């Protein structure tokens, strides 16, 4: 087939192969960028989630220390319960994805 391209267009086969190689290089670069961006997003999400969780826990401790036990305990339960529920849900979803791939 490539011989026919060479007959139709001077050096056509070489041009097609060069184009394919450039496209492959471009695709690899884009995939690398997407992977790095996803990794950065995940790390940032973890850090910000931790900051929010610690802020809510701190507010809960402060509420308990000034005598607002109900509000403080609610904040503490939320600070601890939210990440635990998120962790359990994430693990369950990962297990389902692995099961579907198999």
Description of the molecule:
There is one protein chain. The protein has 102 residues and is mainly alpha-helical. It has one domain. The protein is built from three helices and no strands. The chain starts with a helix and ends with a helix.
| Major beta-sheet overview | none
Shape: elongated
Beta content comes to under 5%
Order of helices and strands: HHH
Rg = 27 Å
- The end-to-end distance, rounded to whole angstroms, is 38 Å
Number of helices: 3
Taking pLDDT < 50 over at least 5 consecutive residues as the criterion, the unreliable ranges are none
Please identify the structural class as seen in this structure. mainly alpha
Count of strand segments: 0
Q: What is the mean predicted local confidence, pLDDT?
A: 89
Helix percentage = over 70%
Q: What are the salient characteristics of this protein?
A:
single chain; 102 residues; mainly alpha; 3 helices
Give the helices and strands, then pairings.
Layout: H1 2-8, H2 12-65, H3 69-101
Helix pairs in contact: 2-3
In brief:
The protein has helices spanning 2-8, 12-65, 69-101.
């Amino acid at each position: 087939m490539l011989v026919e391209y060479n007959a139709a267009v001077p050096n056509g086969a070489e041009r097609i192969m060069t184009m394919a190689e450039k496209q492959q290089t471009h695709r690899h670069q884009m995939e690398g960028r997407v992977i790095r961006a996803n990794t950065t997003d995940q790390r940032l999400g973890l850090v910000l989630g931790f900051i929010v969780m610690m802020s809510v826990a701190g507010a809960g401790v402060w509420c308990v220390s000034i005598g607002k036990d109900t509000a403080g305990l609610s904040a503490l339960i939320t600070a601890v319960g939210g990440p635990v529920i998120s962790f359990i849900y994430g693990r369950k979803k990962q297990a389902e994805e692995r099961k579907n791939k198999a």
